């Protein structure tokens, strides 16, 4: 089977852009990715484009060129971008195309997501009575995790502080003001034990990746980044997942992140010990902590010591969310996972500027988690 | 003045409240594999059977985890009062049945703890213009002192 490699990345800044439609941000990201790859739009043979807010994201061809290219819209909650890149890679691996694109774009209004519970297959009373909030799940999951594994409030604050510090060095990030752990701990509690500065916010932005066959990459770049594996898994019965009015008792069932992570490592032939830099879904500071363990990068409870030691800092043993993560960048759902891969590609090329991790990183890891219990993992290498 | 009350929806919990019968959540049990569901579901997510029977769930459980809601949720879908009072939510484990997400009557996280004994109750989560209280289910911490009392005394 032919391997897919990334030859170009493009990122529209994340944040608030009044008057600029998501489609225009997406087109900008595509043009940046095409320029980075040294290819033109008519050369693209197919692609996948993801968005939550844009009903027909594939209409972006109207901004780029009506070449007749097959461009398929995809959506998998917060794992949407994982789906777009997986399918774009699959189209190359199976021989359908030689040159593909993965695009993500979104423009969310301010504040927490508001939706009709029926879109998630949940009855109206769940929303009417104030239970239909994803932030509840994150508060409850980390509260239980802190109880079981001895994670402190200070560690939550250190994670948030790290991600805002990393974002301060990222000109395309949204939240670029560094905050000390003390400042994070002084912000109002939104959902105990999570505080305002421990949560990411929905925002706007776009990202794109150009992929090609590994055996043709030399025509475009001397630094292709290999897509070693992609995996997407949904929740299993008994797992504790977002937006669940109830779930069964019994032995704990592992999250879809654990399932997707194991599958991705196995397909890549790469283990957690080989990962040089990781981008993990940090919807909130607690999620980053939990996802370190769920992705096999440490044992449950080890985070308390690792984070105190600075292991997840840019200069540490296992840098996590070097571009500021979701906390620093916010979450335009369709683009979020491609923003993660954009950062890994810069790190593996050694072009991440002030955010560049030391040494010669070879393996990068990205992870998404979202409603209603879906996770996507992508493992990349030089 | 009598206050009119109505449930947020039919079929979620036993209604109207009865002096002789305790309040219960209305779940279901798959007739093929026995999986307990809440709210009641005709289709089973374990064995895919489409036959189930109604099962009234236990009205006591233990607190598995919790959080607080310190800002007014987006509205719609939330239809509680404009004057927002923070509330708590949690998952309560009903032994041998399931873990159910619910409002908690105690809003102070310092007064909640994982493993705490909880009992089912109703709360008026909203009041309509005509004064009608809209009721939903919630769990309340069981008073430690009451719990310590011997059952015999309670019965006497």
TrEMBL record, chain A:
One Pfam family it belongs to: Thiolase_C_1
Limits of the Thiolase N-terminal domain: 5-173
Xref: InterPro entries: Thiolase (IPR002155), Thiolase-like (IPR016039), Thiolase_C_2 (IPR055140), Thiolase_N (IPR020616)
Domain of life: Bacteria
Residue ranges constituting the Thiolase C-terminal domain according to the UniProt record: 254-379
Protein's name according to its UniProt entry: Acetyl-CoA acetyltransferase
Organism: Streptomyces umbrinus
TrEMBL record, chain B:
Alphabetized InterPro entries for the sequence: ChsH2_C, ChsH2_Znr, NA-bd_OB-fold, Thioester_dehydratase-like
Sequence ranges assigned to domain ChsH2 rubredoxin-like zinc ribbon in this UniProt record: 24-51
Taxonomy, superkingdom: Bacteria
Family annotation (Pfam families): OB_ChsH2_C, zf-ChsH2
Lineage start: Bacteria, Bacillati, Actinomycetota, Actinomycetes, Kitasatosporales
Residue ranges annotated for the ChsH2 C-terminal OB-fold domain, each copy included: 57-121
Protein name: OB-fold protein
PANTHER family: BLR3430 PROTEIN
